[in-house]
Specification:
The chain is mainly alpha-helical. It has 3 helices and no strands. One of its GO terms (molecular function) is DNA-binding transcription factor activity.
Length: 71
């Protein structure tokens, strides 16, 4: 991940922390393919991996207000 991509992720997380639901969609679009690939590689079951992916992003959204980013 380059500096520009990292800055974009930080921005999306901060927007989520402020309660902007659109930021969750942006974060999902950015990270879901990579996160899914990782989960699938570990679980070796695409259906379960999809469920875990959804649960993961739900939890990220629920905990977004607790995000602290230090630069």
């Amino acid at each position: 991940m380059n500096d520009k991509e990292e800055a974009l992720l930080h921005c999306q997380l901060l927007r989520m922390a402020r309660g902007e639901e659109e930021a969750l969609e942006a974060l999902y679009q950015t990270l879901a393919p990579w996160v899914f690939a990782l989960i699938h590689r570990i679980l070796k079951n695409p259906e379960v991996a999809k469920e875990v992916l959804q649960d993961t992003f739900l939890r990220v959204y629920q905990q977004a207000g607790r995000v602290r980013i230090y630069v």
